[in-house]
Amino acid sequence: MTNDHRRLDEQMAQEVLLDDPSFLREIVERVVQQILEAEMSEHIGAAPYERTDKRTGQRNGYKPRTLRTRVGTLNLLVPQDREGTFSTRLFARYQRNEKALVLALMQMYVEGVSTRKVKDVTEELCGTSFSKSLVSGLATRLDAELEAWRSRPLEAEGYPYLFVDARYEKVRMDARVVSQGVLLVSAVRDDGMREILGVEVADTESEATYQELFRSLKARGLKGVELVVSDDHEGLKSAVCRHFQGAAHQRCQVHYMSNLLGMVGRAKRKELGSDLRAIFAAPAREQALRIASSVAHKWRQKGHEKVQEHVEEHIEECLSCLAFPESHRRRIRTTNGLERLNQEIKRRSRVVRIFPNRESCLRLVTALAMEQSEEWITGRRYLDMEEIGEHRRTEELVVESEEAMIMKP
Predict the structure, then answer these.
(1) Short-list 208, 209, 204, 247, CA closest to 225
(2) pLDDT over 60 at 117, yes or no
(3) Cα-Cα-Cα-Cα dihedral of 211, 217, 223, 224, to 10°?
């Protein structure tokens, strides 16, 4: 018997060394089968052939099932119970974002706005044909989970840095295709971790929309906001002034630079970009404003009065980050922290092209935002927030020193 085990061990070692493609699949298949057996034992309260007072059901054979994985297709035997109440958690194939994408494609088909290709793709993804009732059932279960996440309490002691961004998606409404604003709100918490706080799909990117968004966030526990970073949207800035009194507003430097570069020809954009980066790289507000003044004068002499006026009137909106710790500035001067999420939304929405309804759009964006937020919260700390306190204490000492110098005879 010992020799048989030794031969098996030698055979397995050879397969590993030879990189047998079926070797890993067979191991995974055995492990998954064991998990299925353990789930059934937990479900009925007893192992196979075990007699116990805690038993709540009886086994009733197996049902063959295949499961596609990265190591190949697994051929499994799913345990059955006599009452038919057992359902394994293993076959929830897709993450929330994949389920949302599949549901969007399904809805396109069942509402008559798709093509045969969409039907083929969704049936391949789902492994079966589908109907309106199936779509409705899947959507109901997923929407409940996503809605619970969107309305969850915000439990951090404070959210010093708030980032607000918007993108637009095409949505079919009342037999028309309209553009809907997808509003995303993220924050850096007082423990230095990032979190996505809010997701909304709105008719227009208006002040009323932001008023309602911020009101909802505050009701859920948003507090301690010191800086709001966004693009130059008048409705958003008005809503910030109303709901976050005392907080500064930082205009996204990337958005600002993009707007300004559009005012000059392609041949001069490199030079203007270099001038703007010199302003943004200044270590202090006063120095940045001096550089901005010389940049405005320079471009006026070049015949670009619009550039000069824009720099003189709006550059200060991009410098609010200079009132915060130097080590934080690179990460709070733009909304680029949301760029990865926006790229993922774009990649998925490109597949759908036109969402069949607003709920479908909100479902997909929420699922993506939820998984991004979970990744942030369980990842590395984004900023050392203790530096804010140190920065404030340093500023107070400087002010006290300057006041003492003024009072000194």
Answers:
(1) 247
(2) no
(3) -70
Is residue 86 within 8 Å of 63, Cβ to Cβ?
Answer: no
Alpha helices in 45-129 (DSSP H): 96-110, 116-126
* Bridge partner residues of 154 (DSSP): none
Least confident of 54-58, 179-183, 320-324: 54-58
Tens digits of per-residue pLDDT, 268-323? 999 999 999 999 999 999 999 999 999 999 999 999 999 999 999 999 999 999 99
Cross-strand pairs, 409: none
d(CA 108, CA 170): 13
What pLDDT band is residue 78 in, cutting at 50, 70 and 90? confident
Task: Report how many domains make up the chain.
Answer: 3
Instruction: Give the pair of three-digit tokens for residue 372.
Output: 């991004």
Around 77, how many Cα atoms within 13 Å sit in the side-chain half-sphere? Answer: 7
- The pTM (predicted TM-score) of the whole model is 0.69
Q: At what angle do helices 358-377 and 132-150 cross, to 10 degrees?
A: 50
Question: Is 331 in contact with 382 (CB distance < 8 Å)?
Answer: yes
Task: Please check whether residue 402 lies inside any domain of the structure.
Answer: no
Task: Show the CA angle centred on residue 81, arms to residues 77 and 87, nearest 5°.
Answer: 70
Please give the pLDDT value at position 104. 64
Residues 237 and 203 in one domain: yes
Identify whether residues 118 and 210 lie together within a single domain.
Answer: yes
282 in the same domain as 231: no
Report the side by side order of strands in the sheet with 194-202.
194-202, 176-188, 161-173, 227-230, 248-251
**DSSP string of 71-87?**
TEEEEEEEEEETTS---
State the virtual CA torsion across 68, 73, 77, 80 in degrees, nearest 10: 10
Q: Judge whether 345 lies within some domain.
A: no
Phi, psi of 67 (to 5 degrees): -135, 120
Residue range(s) defining the domain that contains residue 262: 253-333
Look up residue 371 and give its amino acid. Answer: E
Could you read off the pLDDT of 345-365 as tens digits, one per residue? 887 777 678 888 888 889 888
Same domain, 113 and 244: yes
Q: Specify if 201 maps to a domain.
A: yes
What percent of the chain is predicted at pLDDT more than 70?
75
Identify whether the C-beta of residue 348 lies closer than 8 Å to the C-beta of residue 369: no
